[in-house]
Amino acid sequence: MPFTVLNLGCPGIFTEQETESSMILERIYEKAAPRLEGKKIKDARIGLELMAVELSGGEIGVTYLLRKETGEGCMSFPWTGRLSGMDADECARMVLDKQDVISKALGLAVMNAVADVSGYKDESGADGPDAAFSAKIEAADQIGVIGRIGPLINRLKDKRDRMYIFERGENLRRPLCAESTQPELLPECQVVFITSSTVINGTLEKILSYCKEARDVVMVGSSTPLYPEVFMDTPVTVLSGTQWPSSARDDIMAYISQCAGMKQLIRFGRKVSVKTGNQYR
Predict the structure, then answer these.
(1) How far apart are CA 176 and CA 169, in angstroms?
(2) Closest by alpha carbon to 61, among 110, 117, 118, 107?
(3) Does the pLDDT value for residue 9 go beyond 50?
(4) 278 or 268, which is more confident
(5) DSSP for residue 72
(6) Phi and psi for 48 in degrees, rounded to 5?
(7) 3-class SS of residue 138
């Protein structure tokens, strides 16, 4: 059932519109829960741009921290000092039970840590596993990009004249388009790339409702939940995310503790692109 939370001006609280749809998060949790049984949080690091969790089985999950959406003023995280040893399932449920972006990102990181795509074919393009190569773009295609995803936009710079880049805020300079223009412009797009941070801030389902005519919709970024079966009846066709090997645990945790960005951290990860088996259209 949809749930509603009123925005009372508290840091990191979503608006009513952004919390009405949580079906995808509920599905991810249902798939992740059996894999989390008996596991605990071994370690967690929260930086300025990224956060990571390590589970007792050695699994690692990384997500973005939506710093601009944590609100203003002094922020204290209610789980400080209590994360180590916490039941992994309890932490994962934060994506459903909590409304601040830090708790939701942490819960998603836990679920990402146990995602398993070993039975799926890697759909990386001929030029590599980068999200930019995970969908075939025809010469006449209009492209939509949700979020200012720098590396992706740079990879597609030769297509900038037929690209809408949507960002939050109004009165944005071209080529940026205001979030409010999505209902009008996204239906024009044949290929759409969506930052997976939309899973955290609760806007994904609304965005997908505008992508029904798109041939390919690609979820992009380390926050991407690699659960292909969850997206089979949605417009999403490709999940382009990252897996983090336990062998790189020390480096991953140290870098995030020192406020690393994804450009610095990605050397320790493995990019993965898998199809969802989408039966939507």
Answers:
(1) 10
(2) 110
(3) no
(4) 268
(5) S
(6) -85, -25
(7) coil
Strand order in the sheet with 163-167: 176-178, 163-167, 143-146, 191-195, 216-220, 238-243, 270-275
- Judging by DSSP bridges, how do beta strands 41-46 and 50-55 pair with one another? antiparallel
Instruction: Look at residue 4 in the predicted model and tell me its pLDDT.
Output: 27
What are the pLDDT digits (tens) for 178-203? 889 999 999 999 999 999 999 988 89
Q: Tokens 């601040």 sit at which residue?
A: 100
DSSP class of 61: E
Q: Is the pLDDT of residue 18 over 70?
A: no
Q: How far apart are CA 176 and CA 12, in angstroms?
A: 24
131-181 pLDDT, tens digit per residue, is 767 788 898 999 999 988 888 888 888 888 889 999 876 666 677 888 899
Helix-then-strand count for the chain, H and E: 11, 10
Please count the other Cβ atoms lying within 10 Å of the Cβ belonging to residue 33. Answer: 15
Q: Which domains does the chain have, with CATH numbers?
A: 131-242+269-275 (3.40.50.11590)
Residue with tokens 């944005």: 172
